[in-house]
Amino acid sequence: MSLPIDSVLLTDLYQLTMLQGYHAQRMNGTAVFEFFVRKLPGGDEPKRNFLVAAGLEQALDFLEGMRFRPDEIEWLRASGRFTPDFVDALAALRFSGDVDAMPEGTVFFPGEPILRVTAPLPEAQLAETRLINLLHFQTLIASKAARMTLAAPGKLLVDFGLRRAHGAEAGLLAARAACLAGFAGTSDVLAGRLWDFPLYGTMAHSFIQAHDDELAAFEHFALAQPDNLVLLIDTYDTEAAAEKLIPLAERLAAKGIRIQGVRLDSGDLAEHARRVRRILDRGGLGQVSIFASGSLDEYLLAAHTAEAVPIDGYGIGTRMDTSSDAPYLDCAYKLQEYAGIPRRKRSEGKATWPGRKQVYRYYDAEGKLQRDSLTLVDDAQPGEPLLRPVMRNGRRLAASPPLQTLRSHAMEQLGRLPEALRRLSPAPAHPVEIAGRLKSLVKAMDGHS
After folding, report:
1. Are residues 154 and 286 in the same domain?
2. Residues 255 and 392 in one domain
3. Parallel, antiparallel, or unpaired: how do β-strands 357-363 and 369-376 relate?
4. Beta strands per DSSP E along 43-83
5. What SUPFAM superfamilies does the entry give (predicted)?
6. 245 and 196 fall within a common domain
7. So what's the pLDDT on residue 41?
8. Of 302, 321, 340, which marks where a domain is finished?
9. pTM (global) more than 0.90
10. What does residue 435 show for φ and ψ, rounded to 5 degrees?
11. Any residues with CB less than 8 A from the CB of 30 and at least 6 apart, and which?
12. How far apart are CA 153 and CA 304, in angstroms?
């Protein structure tokens, strides 16, 4: 049975029970919800200095298609959980609201909304679970991938994580988020087709093991892939395999085939790379690149960069696609206004800033991020407003930008980070000031609650 992940039933039960309550009380006024991250992962020793917004395209896809299918309506009716008139109302439900959001690839910080939904209360409420699901995951992975991009400047970075991702959708969206945040491409064929970004792949150890002779395996693969020949050389003895490539390269050259690269996947990658580089250079194969994979993260990439390890590119898998050091973000999608009245949650440790908000960004003389200001949408400020209109009356204002455009925006954003925020070590928090108008609103609300 295939999994219908596009179903509106892919939600939490309490969304539907709340909607029935709204329906009974005719609560259809305009609601404003905002999605934001409460704090960086890691607490007092944050494992991120910044985050990268991602997932907006899929969020808008969901909202445009948010409706119950006839068979789903009949299932809800037969469940006995809901009143007949409420189920009838669900059959007619469509998203008719507005969305403002930060463009994908935008750097942001805790407390800053990256998406605002303004819609009739039942519509905005029903969207909660899936919007969090989509925005949280891609933002999580894009933020991890951005750190790797910064840790290995000038290196070819490729997403290799599909097989270790937490499910098919996670694998696809991780590839998208990684490429958005600076990766050159992915090994995921379907992701390449869906978003038109480059595909990279070499060979598995099984191809070598299926042959009686390693050199024969290399030759057979060369004949099968004459225009994109990258050989995996660490199945048995890495350096011995590198030596075999020298006479092999001459034979292949006679057939018009050039060895483009070798891949290392185990052991001390740095030391093997140094030895292999010396062997290849000594054999006249200085143009052959070295590509590495296997349990890589930004910390190892940074160490290789500092040590000038002769590795030209990396295939990044498990630790990125699972964001292994910080596998979740403390994020939320909260009601900030209903029926024209600002709303505020005051729960201990989870209080919210009420009202419809905007984030303004300021830069220093060198164009680097200096500070942000969080305020109400009608409190215009001279900085750069980060949330922009993307949907009105349930329809996109424009087609989603191609991934290369989003990637360029993300690279521009990373380039404007101050040096302290670019590092892997914890940095002083980026200043996010709360504007006076917003503070005054909170004071007025708390004094009259």
Report:
1. yes
2. no
3. antiparallel
4. 51-52
5. Nicotinate/Quinolinate PRTase C-terminal domain-like, Nicotinate/Quinolinate PRTase N-terminal domain-like
6. yes
7. 94
8. 321
9. yes
10. -65, 155
11. 118, 119, 120, 121, 337, 338, 339, 340
12. 11
Q: How far apart are CA 23 and CA 85, in angstroms?
A: 9
**Identity of residue 9:** L
CA distances to 33, 170, 342, 417, 439 from 357, in Å: 10, 30, 11, 23, 12
Q: What is the pLDDT of residue 44?
A: 80
The per-residue pLDDT for 448 is: 62
CATH number for the domain that contains residue 271: 3.20.20.70
pLDDT of amino acid 314: 98
The DSSP annotation for 214-257 comes to HHHHHHHHHHH-TTSEEEE--SS-HHHHHHHHHHHHHHHHHTT-
Q: At what angle do helices 168-180 and 403-415 cross, to 10 degrees?
A: 60
Domain co-membership, 275 together with 306? yes
Q: Residue 172: what pLDDT? A: 97
- Contacts for 186-192 with beta carbons within 8 Å, 24 or more apart? 186/158, 186/159, 186/160, 186/162, 187/158, 187/159, 187/160, 187/162, 187/315, 188/159, 188/162, 191/159, 191/162
Q: Report the pLDDT value the prediction gives residue 43, as an integer from 0 to 100.
A: 80
How many domains does the chain fold into?
2
Q: Which spans in 152-230 are helix H?
A: 168-180, 189-195, 205-209, 214-224
| Residue 158 shares a structural domain with residue 304 | yes
Range of the domain at 419: 13-142+326-447
C-alpha 425/C-alpha 87 separation (Å) is 52
